[in-house]
Amino acid sequence: MKLFGTAGIRGTLWEKVTPELAMNIGRAMGTYIDGDTVAVARDGRTSSVMLQSALISGLLSTGKEVLDFGLIPTPALAWGTRKYADGGVMITASHNPPTDNGIKVFNGDGTEFYVEQEGELEGLVFSRNFRKAEWDEIKGLKSLDIRDEYIGTVLDFVNHETNLTVLYDGANGAGSVVAPYLLREMGAKVISVNAHIDGHFPGRKPEPRYENIAYLGELARTLGVDLVIAQDGDADRIAVFDEKGQYVNEDALIALFAKLYVEENGGGTVVVSIDTGSRIDHVVEEAGGKVVRIPLGQPHDGIKKYGAIFAAEPWKLVHPKFGPWIDSFVTMGLLIKLIDERGKPLSQIIREEIPTYYLTKKNVKCPDELKKAILERVHRILEERLGDEIKEVLTISGYRFQLKDGSWVLVRPSGTEPKIRVVVEAPSEKRRDELFELAYSVVAKEVEKLKQSAQA
C-alpha cells in the first residue's frame, strides 16, 4: 500500500485518513526527524482538529517537543517550520472535497518531503518501528501564533505599497486568516467573499478551477476591481482574474513570473510540471533561460536537482528566493507589485508579454486500482492514432505526446483523487478541440470498458 500521492497523503475520512493513521504518521515523524521540535498546523476542515490531536499524540510519544501553530495556511506552516522547528506537519486535504482530509510533511528548511523521504516514512509506518520515549523524556506542547510574523515577512520580501482594489475569494479556507490582512497591509482596498472558515465549503468547491470560480468574473466587472485572487482550502493554490473579469490561464500566470525571474537573473533554469504549456517555453527561452519539466508534486525536488530560480505547477508557484515551498501569498504580493510597476492593467500586460495558446483540461473518473491498466491501454491507442504526428513521448506522470506542430496531449493519473486527467494544448482552437475530442473519448471509453470487465 502506498500512502503518499503527488501532494502528501489524502483521502476520504475513515476510509484512508483516520486518527490511527495520523497518530502513526506522528510517531513515524518523531522517529525520523533529527532535532527536538516539530511544528504542526491544520486547515478548517471539520475533521482537522481530531486528526491534528492524534498526530500530536504520536509526536509526543517519541519525545519530540511540539509547536502548535493552530489554523493557518500551508505556506505559513512551511515558513514557520523553517524558522522555529526541525520538521513540520500540516493537516489538510488542500482542494479535495469536504469529505476528505490529509497530511503533508515538511523538512526543517520548509521543503515538502522528497520522494525518497516519503518512502522512508512509509516504511516506518508499516514496520511500526517507532521510538518510544521514556516517561521522563516526554516533552510538552506549545501554542504559537505566527500569522502576524509571517505576514510581516511576506511584506518585507515584496516591499511594495499599492492602491489597487482587490476582490479576494478564500473558499472558506485557511487563507482567509492571512490574505485579507496581507492585502490590506499592502494598501489595497480589499473586498472579500467566502472569507469565513467553514469546513463544509458552503461558498464554492475548494479547488480554484475556472468552473468553480467563474462567477468571480461577473462580480469583478460589477464591482470594478483591479484584480481578483482566489485560493483553495489550504491556500497554497492561487487563481487570478484580471480587471476585465477575464480568467487568467494558469500557464499565462506561470509564464509571467518565469519571464520576470529569468530577466532579473539574466538567464537561469525554470522548473515546471509535466502538465504545463508551451507559452512558458516561449517566454523563458526568449529571455535566455531554460525550461525543465518534472513530475507533478515535485517542484522542490526540481529546485534541488536543477538549481531552479523559479518552479511551478498550475496554480502553485514556488519563489526560491523567499522559500522552497509553494506560496500563494508571495505570488499575490509580487503580482500586485508587477502590475503597479508596469503601470498597466493585468490584461494588457499579459496580452503584450505572453503569447496565446489554447488549452483544455478535463477529468475522467477512474477507480485507483484501474489507473495503471487504463494508462497502458490509452498509451497504445493514442500512439497508434496519432502516428507520424508524434515528435516524442514523455513518460513523466503518465504520457505526454509532443506533436510536430507544437501541440501536445497529456494523459495522467491524479495522485490525490480517483481520476484520469486529460490535458490538450494547441496553436489553434480548432486543433485543440480535435485533439481533445480524440484523447478524452479514448480515455472515457477505456475506463468504461475496464469498469464493466471488473464488474462482470
TrEMBL record:
Keywords: Isomerase, Magnesium, Metal-binding, Phosphoprotein. It comes from Thermococcus guaymasensis DSM 11113. Transmembrane segments: none annotated. Gene3D superfamilies: Alpha-D-Glucose-1,6-Bisphosphate, subunit A, domain 3 (3.40.120.10), Alpha-D-phosphohexomutase, C-terminal domain (3.30.310.50). The keyword Disulfide bond does not apply. GO terms for biological process: carbohydrate metabolic process. Its cofactor is Mg(2+). Residues 363-436 form the Alpha-D-phosphohexomutase C-terminal domain. Pfam families: PGM_PMM_I, PGM_PMM_II, PGM_PMM_III, PGM_PMM_IV. The keyword Magnesium applies. The lineage of its organism: Archaea, Methanobacteriati, Methanobacteriota, Thermococci, Thermococcales. SUPFAM superfamilies: Phosphoglucomutase, C-terminal domain, Phosphoglucomutase, first 3 domains. Belongs to the phosphohexose mutase family. One of its GO terms (molecular function) is magnesium ion binding. Residues 2-130, 149-245, 250-357 form the Alpha-D-phosphohexomutase alpha/beta/alpha domain. This is Phosphopentomutase.
